[in-house]
């Protein structure tokens, strides 16, 4: 039986022991590149904007991190282009909020993990969003 990187069966539907895309239990292989996001309970940061505050003078404007949080949602099944199209209203709303700052190092680490799991070129995205230090500390390349 063939299993994909998400632990889903690709056995013919309706066969004994499972069908196409039926989840299986058990440990994944060592070469599985997915990242377990449950260690910091992703639901705590349902929307990154909820843990941001208005930026004070001299602090970074982290609104792009809130956009990236939604763009690199590991549970989203659409293409990156489709997600970007659906995020346009969110981006306009973010612009109207004024500068926001993210103090939470845990949220930044979660974003690094999300990018690592979903981006085609994670290193480029780390640089784009100013997350290189967090990525290096977590051992992401």
Task: Please tell me about this protein's structure.
The chain is mainly alpha-helical. It is built from six helices and two strands; from the N terminus they run βαααβααα. The chain has helices spanning 63-71, 80-86, 88-97, 105-118, 122-128, 132-138, and strands at residues 52-54, 100-102. Strands 1-2 form a two-stranded antiparallel ribbon. It is globular, with a radius of gyration of 18 Å. The chain starts with 51 loop residues before the first strand and ends with a helix.
List the main descriptive attributes of the protein structure presented here:
globular, two-stranded antiparallel ribbon, 141 residues, single chain
Task: Explain the layout of strands and helices.
Layout: E1 52-54, H1 63-71, H2 80-86, H3 88-97, E2 100-102, H4 105-118, H5 122-128, H6 132-138
Antiparallel strand pairs: 1-2
Summarize it:
The protein has 141 residues and is mainly alpha-helical. It is 38% helix and 4% strand. It has helices spanning 63-71, 80-86, 88-97, 105-118, 122-128, 132-138, and strands at 52-54, 100-102.
Number of strands: 2
How much of the residues is beta strand, in percent? Answer: under 5%
Q: What proportion of the residues is helical, as a percent range?
A: 25-40%
Write down the Rg.
Answer: 18 Å
Uncertain residue ranges: 18-42
Residue-averaged pLDDT: 74
End-to-end Cα distance: 32 Å
Structural class computed from helices and strand pairing: mainly alpha
Strand order of the largest sheet: 1-2
Shape: globular
Secondary-structure element pattern, one letter each:
EHHHEHHH
For the sheet with most strands, the description reads: 2 strands, antiparallel
Number of helices: 6
